[in-house]
Write a structure and sequence with these properties.
Elements: H1 14-33, H2 37-56
Length: about 60
C-alpha cells in the first residue's frame, strides 16, 4: 500500500514557508552546481512523469 503524505499548505506558517523555500532553493542550486546535476534532475523528472502516466492508466 502506497502512503502519500498530504500537506495542508494553509496550516504552514509564513515563516516556515519561507524557511522551506530557502531550503529547496539551496538544494536545487547545490544539485545544479554538481557536474551532471542538470542531467540528473532532468532524468529524475522524466522518470517521475513516466510513473505518473502509468498510474493514470489504472
Amino acid at each position: 500500500m502506497d502512503s502519500v503524505p498530504h500537506i495542508h499548505l494553509d496550516e504552514i506558517s509564513p515563516e516556515d514557508t519561507a524557511r522551506l523555500a530557502r531550503g529547496c532553493k539551496r538544494l536545487y542550486l547545490k544539485i545544479m552546481a554538481m557536474p551532471d546535476g542538470e542531467a540528473m534532475l532532468d532524468a529524475a523528472w522524466e522518470a517521475y512523469q513516466q510513473r505518473k502516466k502509468g498510474e493514470n492508466k489504472t
